[in-house]
Fold:
Amino acid sequence: MGYVVKRDEIGGAAYSVYFLEIGRGMATVMRHLVRNFTGYWLGVKGPVKSLAPRYEVRTIDYPLERATLPPRYRARHRLVPRADGTPRCVACKCCETTCPAKCIRIVEGEHEDPAIEKKPVIFEIDELRCVFCGYCVEACPCDAIRMDTELVELAEYRRADFVYGIDQLLLDMPQKPPVKGGQW
Ligand code: SF4
Ligand code: SF4
Structure:
């Protein structure tokens, strides 16, 4: 529903024309434009550092600068490895069952260690279908899957390449990129 201009806000004559409201809107836009540009050129590029935070909170120079991810962010999945490098996952399929997008596919097999019942022979996540809800992480009884990689910029050339298998999901935690700028 659109904004209804009340007659007592701007007066009777201007109420029927709306030009006053258009002018006020443009003035607000220009005020923010001038203020932000001034903050950038004087505060970030120039000597008046006190103006910089106002600019930096709003805009960062991505991709030269990276924003700080919020504490509870969810990024690309990873499988947590055991000490020998194999997945901690026991192929219980809790994550596959709970996934609302049905983008996890697990095929289980016998584990070589008799103390561990099963292991995933195939563990695939279609990151294009994933809605990054985090239910798979919540459902896992072994803390075997996490979404803490900080990889939020997923790019591939083919749709099929977004289906990540065990080898890709067993990646180490990547090095954090240099963080500048404001919070998300
Ligand atoms: S984050 Fe949600 S949609 Fe994505 S794989 Fe996990 S449960 Fe499925
Ligand atoms: S819920 Fe955890 S242990 Fe079970 S299949 Fe998924 S990742 Fe593996």
